[in-house]
Structures are given as structure tokens and as C-alpha cells.
Amino acid sequence: MTRLQGEPRAAIDLRRRPWRPLALEAICLAGIGISIYLLIVHYEPQALICHVGGAVNCEKVLTSPSSVIFGIPVPYFGFAFFIGMGAICLPAAWRSGAAWLAWGRVAAAVAGIGMVVYLVYQEALVLHAICLWCTGVHVLTFAMFLIIVSGWEDTGYAQARYGY
Fold first, then answer.
1. For residues 97 and 158, is the Cβ–Cβ distance under 8 A?
2. What is the spatial distance between Cα 85 and Cα 157, in angstroms, rounded to a whole number?
3. How many whole angstroms separate alpha carbon 41 and alpha carbon 59?
4. Domain ranges for the chain
5. Which of 3, 24, 98, 146 could be joined to 89 by an S-S link, Cβ 3.0–4.6 Å?
6. Whole-model pTM?
């Protein structure tokens, strides 16, 4: 791709590989949707659409003491996470040369994975039950983490700082 006079390299590379921020936005939208649904289920348990019984038991997971942290239902944290990540993964933010934004995106993705590890631990080893909706959020968070970490060279900060 030819570089136009005065056009930053980040803009060229984002046009060449626009899928990362777009995929991240799609993941965030799906995460927001599942988080909203799980919030509804938290307050209206009869709205749950999931298998109940055996190892897969959404009701057991969603009504357990582990479904609330510091008095706040866990889906609120998921909702806030996906809203925040949606903002810092917008294409304009992805190509930004701001160090705080690039490193903040990585830090938030790592924090998301940390929360996923904690919640999977709670489900598998404490509750002995898995929630498929929660697993969906965990998979989305892991996919987001992989895209962010593997796409470091595509960020405007890395291109400006390291010349990728």
C-alpha cells in the first residue's frame, strides 16, 4: 500500500488490517448483550434459559454467593468491562499513539483474564457447576485478550514508538 504524503503509518496499517478493532467491537457487543441478560436473570431468575442439572447448572452458579462480589452482582462487572473495552478498542483508539491507551488496553485485557480465572475456579472447584452463559463471557474475554496481545504491532502506539 502506498503511503500518501503526511499520512501516518498507523492509518495505512489499520486500513490493511482493520479486522482487529472490528472483531473486538463485535466481541464487546456480544459481551454487553450476555451481561445484560445475566443481570436480568439475577433480578428475575425465571427469565433463565439454560439447562439445570448435572455439571451444567446455570441456576446454581447464578444464584450462588459467588455470583455477587462486594455486594454487586458479577454481571455488572462484566457489563462495565465490555463497555470500557468497547471504548478503548474503537478503531480510532486502536490507531492512537497514546501510550496510556495502548498499555491500558493490555492491562484491562489481563485484568479480564484474571477475573475469568477466578470465576472459572469458583464454578469448577467451589460450586462444581458450570454456567453456559458465563462460559460464553469467559470465551469472549479470552478471545479479546488474544486479539489484543497478538495485535500489539498493529496499534498506533507500537507503530509510532517501535516503527512496526
1. no
2. 17
3. 9
4. 28-162
5. 24
6. 0.86
Q: 28-162 belongs to which homologous superfamily? A: VKOR domain (1.20.1440.130)
Residue 81 C-alpha cell reads as: 468491562
Per the structure block, which three cell numbers stand in for 152?
500489539
112 confidence band (pLDDT: 50, 70, 90): very high
| Angle subtended at Cα 159 by Cα 82 and Cα 6, rounded to the nearest 5 degrees | 115
* DSSP symbols for 41-59: HHH-GGG--S--STTB-HH
Mean residue pLDDT of the chain comes to 88
How far apart are alpha carbons 82 and 75 in whole angstroms?
10
- Helices 19-43 & 132-150, crossing angle to 10 degrees? 160
Query: Going by C-beta distance under 8 Å and a sequence separation of 6 or more, which residues neighbour residue 7?
Result: none
CA distance 14 to 120: 35
The Cα–Cα gap between 113 and 115 comes to 5
Q: Helices 99-121 & 74-88, crossing angle to 10 degrees?
A: 150
82 CB-near residues (< 8 Å, 6+ apart) = 27, 28, 29, 31, 32, 35
At 164 the pLDDT is 62
